[in-house]
Amino acid sequence: MSVPELNRLLEDALVREAAWDAVSRLDPQHLSQYDLDFSDIAVLETPDPGKLAAFGVHPMLAMWGSFMRNPDFSAGMSAGEYFVDQGKDAS
User: Fold this and answer.
1) Where do the domains of the chain lie?
2) Whole-angstrom Cα distance, residue 54 to residue 36?
3) Tens of pLDDT along 3-33?
C-alpha cells in the first residue's frame, strides 16, 4: 500500500484535466507513473470517500477521488454534507 502515492495521484488529477480523465478510466499507462500496488488500484476501482479515507487517503482527496471514479457521486452528496458526516464520525 502506498498512501502517499495515492494522494499524489489524486492531487495531480485535481490540477491536470488529462490526469483526471486518466484516473476516471484507471488508465494503466497513467497509473504506471505512480508507485501503486494491487491494493491501491483495487481501492480505486470502487471508491467512496469513507473507503478511501479508511485506506489512509486525505479526506478531501478521498472525496475528489470518488468524484473522479463515479460521476454520479456528486448527485448523492455535496461537499458540505460530506464534511458534516466526517465531523459526526470524529465525535
Assistant:
1) 3-90
2) 17
3) 999 999 999 999 999 999 999 999 999 999 9
Contact, 65 vs 47, CB < 8 A?
yes
pLDDT tens, position by position, 25-73: 999 999 999 999 999 999 999 888 889 999 999 999 998 998 888 877 7
Q: What does DSSP assign to residue 34? A: S
Residue 12 vs residues 7, 23, 49, 59: alpha-carbon distances, Å: 9, 10, 18, 16
Cell digits of residue 90: 470524529
82 contacts 49 by C-beta, under 8 angstroms: yes
Dist CA 8 CA 17 (whole Å): 15
In Å, how far are 26, 32, 86 from 16, measured between CA atoms? 15, 17, 27
